[in-house]
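INFO batch 0412 | record 1 of 1 | parsing
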Amino acid sequence: MTTPWLARLPAALFAIPVGLFGLAAAWRRARGYGWSIAEPVGAALAWTAVAILVVLLALYAAKCLRHPRVIGTEFANPVAGSLMALIPLALMLATVCFGVAGDGAWLALVLFALTLQGIVAMRVVSILATGTLPAAAVTPALYLPPAAGGFVGAMALSTLGYPGWAALLFGMGLVGWALLEVRVLNRLFEGPMPEALRPTIGVELAPPSVATLAAGTIWPILPGDVLIVGLGVAAGPIVAVMARYKWWHNVPFSIGFWSFSFPLAALAGAVVEVVRRGGWPPLVGGIALAVASAVIAVLAVRTLALLARGRLLPPPARG
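INFO prediction complete | emitting tokens
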């Protein structure tokens, strides 16, 4: 008997709208350069992300109703459970792109997303604090619930006009990042991760890039010379990931490689903001946007190829 396709629908698919929302926000930041193309490109990316998110939410809700035991098993798994954080992340990024300050409906959506994020983050903190995390399950995906959730949640609340609460979440994101940094880096420097987990290495780029972007969002008066410190911190993970190029490049393409999308989009957005505030040549921000856009375009094309071949979902388990 094969596993139904709906039961095999992974939460990792939500990395697609997360990456597209992130790239949309980065393009919209380029409006500060006076580029007329920035707004329509950002809007097209954001609405594409909305369409994909709506479809995925409907499918995942059906999975929760029809296969609750599968959901429970995935939640208990440190990696699969961490990837569930992509769902509330997508909702909060939608708020960053479309939210209106003082709007109660958007605030309710963010509070709902933060509740989901908190549940997943508590699971990660629990397995870390009790020493029950298997060494083979240590992966950058663990950053998603506590660190990315705090930073993206901060951006969402700042967008809705709650800078104080946003700063609180930013601090919580920093704590989550610090909690995981030593454990994850030690594991990565010990040797290659299991092949199935290697595509998640893109998340290693996320914490410093997203933190820099969040800081720029919460405190719009921060000068470029301050934010550029965050870009310097982000350079370390970039070098570390590229140094392991052979480890993850030779792995067959899967949806897991969308782990690169949001970190690169956030990095591009941070570069755009640093360049704008520092009064430096907009070409620098344009190059960052071009690189992030090109990588996400490649991911999209390869994902469509998987879909066309019927290989987008994990293969069915037989029993």
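INFO post-check: The chain is about 70% helix and 0% strand.
INFO record closed
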